[in-house]
Write a structure and sequence with these properties.
The complex is a heterodimer of chains A (about 450) and B (about 260). Chain A has helices at about 20-25, 30-40, 45-55, 65-70, 95-100, 105-115, 130-145, 175-185, 215-225, 225-230, 265-270, 305-310, 330-345, 350-365, 370-385, 395-405, 410-420, 435-440, and strands at about 80-85, 120-125, 160-165, 210, 240-250, 255-260, 280-285, 320-325. Chain A has about 450 residues and is α/β, with parallel strands linked by helices. Chain A folds into three domains: about 20-230, Rossmann fold (3-Layer(aba) Sandwich), CATH 3.40.50; about 240-325, Ubiquitin-like (UB roll), CATH 3.10.20.600; about 330-420, Up-down Bundle (de novo design (two linked rop proteins)). The model of chain B is unreliable at about 1-55 and about 255-264 (pLDDT under 50).
């Protein structure tokens, strides 16, 4: 069923028993890239190779990893590498599986990234909820220190890389790179004004490279096989493979690693099994809950950064959430907006107030207390959030909610009318429930 | 710090109400021209009477002078002190230790108690107010008692589609916690044992609907699982071993077979 559609690179040995232990990891070829990078390569040469590979950030923004690394100034100042393992974008669970099953793959990627960036201190900022995964990372880091892959004078090269696993404590905003830095500095996780960008002035005011887990885990493969090999996967603008998290109304939710650019339908139907028997897909988020929602018409688009952007959405973190015909779009919009309302740090007014009012208005829609004119207000609030804040958390609500109101406006109007006809009722925002059994495991 | 006087006021009041020994008031000492930042130095000139000798500064009210607790004034358990000092040593700047320190406090006392925060602040050399302001930002830190076991039920989009709200209700029923409160910030069961809370996406939509039980992930779960899990937690036995995230293979396949594309 699925073998032909998957391309397992990061997932090659993912369920190998004991992969999380250094012995197994090394037996399967682990740390050969680190040896090669530290002993045979120069930092500048590595950064060029990463840039040539076309590897784009896997956390959401999709910026060229090598280019970002090249922005760090040269010189003897203290530089830092932060691995963003705060994976909190609703629908996204790829880094969890990668880190839990292959923690050494991340340690190796972080060490190579730090060496290339000239950073002697590296941090993995992992969300506090992932305690089970952080325990694994702690154990892997300890093993890597013992084996001489971390610490001082790594493999006798004179290069130092110190790595600390830093656990967050439950705040979506800390996945935003500058909020992550504030949080890592021991503060409340509020985003910073940019510029200066972290590459110039980041952690402890030093030049800082921040990359997602999956991005860094690709580095050992690029070092081992070269940029051209990496570009052999994917499309011209979206090179490599991507671990895609598929969830919601599908029969086989889970992480699937595919070449970028394969038809989205192949991921949703071919791999994840599509919606339960007899149901149709109504809507899907292509890149986490922050991405504008697409419909069945877009299912044949290639799953790539450029195709999703051309369709007015984004690949984001590579998390597909599928809603079938039983899901109410107004209720899904409300559930989405509530998340951002809860997670807004409150620093910027458009986001703090905009998320709050959007939730209130959508609650009125679902309760039947709204008028169609209110939908115009909802839409205009979204437009007034976008681009008006220090970070994109507000935009991340405005984009999907705005897209739903525009595209499924008739359903919103119908929801208002039918709720009003039904008379005053307590707020009910439950969809038709699909039990796990009903969906099939 | 750029805190409004009112903030410091409220916090100090809250600390007072929680039964912490009151912070000695700073006394006026005319003629001082030192900047407000001198709070730490004031605390540092010690001798037990340190706080009483504190100087007031123009425009600074007494309640503003929230001081860094002096090490000798606060009784910190030796192992907690050692743990926090070890944490501080990991970072170029000691303030980075604030979240791990709060974790250590919460592990020890069950929640971030005012006295625990004061102990952490004394070791870190920051004000208790600072540490509390950090704790209050993050969802996983509890500033009030929160049971001995924690159940977080995801109610975000993917889990909601698969019955996350109903699962939260099942856990509330099994544990004896108020479902309304659990859906709005968390509730402790009537016997004070189990904290149940609806939670934002926990990053396990493949297990939907799922829950984090004492920091371990389980799913997909139904009402019977919730009942069984609560019983196991109370009995101290292994929770839902067959539903643990830890044993779940990756979706798709084939297992372990190297892809033809992959070199080296």
């Amino acid at each position: 069923m699925s073998e032909g559609l998957e391309t397992r690179v990061l997932f090659r040995h993912i369920d190998e028993p004991g992969l999380h232990e250094i012995g197994t990891y090394e037996r399967l070829g682990g740390y050969t890239a680190l040896r090669a990078a530290f002993k045979e390569r120069e930092p500048g040469d590595l950064v060029s190779e990463f840039e040539a590979s076309g590897l784009r950030g896997r956390g959401g923004a999709g910026f060229s990893m090598g280019k970002k690394a090249s922005f760090l100034p040269q010189g003897d100042m203290a530089k830092y590498l932060c691995c963003n393992a705060d994976e909190s974008e609703p629908g996204t669970f790829k880094d969890r599986e990668l880190m839990f099953k292959n923690p050494h793959g991340l340690v190796e990627g972080v060490a190579i990234g730090a060496m290339a960036a000239g950073a002697t201190r590296a941090f993995i900022y992992i969300r506090g909820e992932y305690a089970e995964i952080a325990d694994r990372l702690d154990a892997a880091v300890a093993e890597a220190y013992d084996a001489g892959y971390l610490g001082e004078d790594i493999l006798g090269t004179g290069i130092d890389v110190h790595l600390v696993v830093h656990r967050g404590a439950g705040a979506y905003i800390c996945g935003e790179e500058t909020a992550l830095l504030d949080s890592l500095e021991g503060k409340r996780g509020n985003p910073r004004l940019k510029p200066p960008f972290p590459a110039i002035q980041g952690l402890y005011d030093g030049p800082t490279l921040i990359n997602n887990v999956e991005t860094l885990m690709n580095l050992p493969n690029v070092v081992n096989n070269g940029a051209d090999w990496f570009k052999g996967f994917g499309t011209e603008q979206s090179t490599g493979t991507k671990v895609v998290s598929v969830s919601g109304c599908v029969q086989r939710p889970g992480n699937y690693e595919v070449e970028l650019g394969i038809p989205s339908r192949d991921i949703i139907y071919g791999l994840a099994g599509g919606p339960p028997e007899g149901r149709e897909i109504k809507a899907w988020y292509p890149g986490g809950s922050s991405s504008p929602v697409l419909g069945p018409e877009e299912l044949d688009l290639p799953y790539s950064f450029e195709a999703m952007a051309d369709a007015g959405s984004m690949l984001g973190s590579g998390a597909i959430i599928v809603a079938d015909e039983t899901v109410s779009i107004p209720k899904m919009a409300l559930r989405t907006a509530r998340f951002y309302q809860h997670e807004s740090c409150g620093k910027c007014s458009p986001c703090r107030e905009g998320t709050n009012w959007t939730v209130k208005m959508l609650e009125r829609v679902v309760r039947g207390e709204a008028t169609p004119m209110d939908l115009d207000i909802v839409a205009s609030v979204q437009e007034n959030i976008i681009g008006h804040c220090l970070c994109v958390l507000g935009d991340a609500m405005a984009m999907p909610v705005g897209s739903m109101v525009r595209r499924w406006r008739a359903e919103f109007e119908e929801a208002i009318a039918s709720a009003r006809d039904a008379g005053p009722a307590p707020l009910d925002v439950e969809p038709a429930v699909m039990t796990p059994a009903g969906v099939g495991a | 710090m750029s805190e409004r006087p009112g903030d410091a006021d409220e916090r100090e009041q809250a600390i007072g109400e929680s039964g912490e020994p009151p912070v000695p008031d700073a006394e006026s000492s005319p003629g001082s021209g030192e900047p407000a930042q001198a709070g730490a130095e004031v605390a540092g000139d010690g001798g037990g009477a340190g706080a009483a000798e504190a100087v007031a500064h123009p425009g600074v009210t007494e309640t503003d002078a929230v001081q860094i607790p002096e090490a000798h004034e606060v009784d910190v358990p030796d192992d907690l002190r050692a743990e926090i000092e070890e944490i501080m040593g990991r970072y170029p700047q000691k303030r980075s230790a604030s979240i791990p320190t709060l974790w250590a406090i919460q592990r020890r006392y069950g929640w971030c108690t005012p006295e625990g925060i004061r102990q952490g602040a004394a070791v870190m050399g920051v004000t208790a107010a600072y540490l509390e302001s950090v704790a209050s930002f993050y969802d996983l830190f509890h500033l009030s008692p929160a049971g001995h076991h924690r159940v977080l039920v995801c109610t975000n989009i993917s889990c909601w589609m698969r019955g996350g709200d109903e699962l939260l209700e099942s856990f509330c029923a099994a544990a004896g916690a108020d479902p309304e409160a659990a859906a709005h910030g968390g509730a402790v069961s009537a016997d004070g044992e189990i904290y149940v809370s609806g939670f934002e996406c926990l990053g396990a939509c493949d297990l939907a609907p799922m829950a984090s039980i004492d920091e371990r992930y389980y799913g997909p779960l139904d009402g019977d699982d919730a009942e069984a899990a609560v019983a196991s937690v109370k009995a101290g036995s292994e929770v839902l071993p067959e539903k643990a995230m830890a044993i779940r293979p990756a979706a798709g396949g084939p297992d372990g077979e190297p892809d033809a594309h992959v070199a080296g």
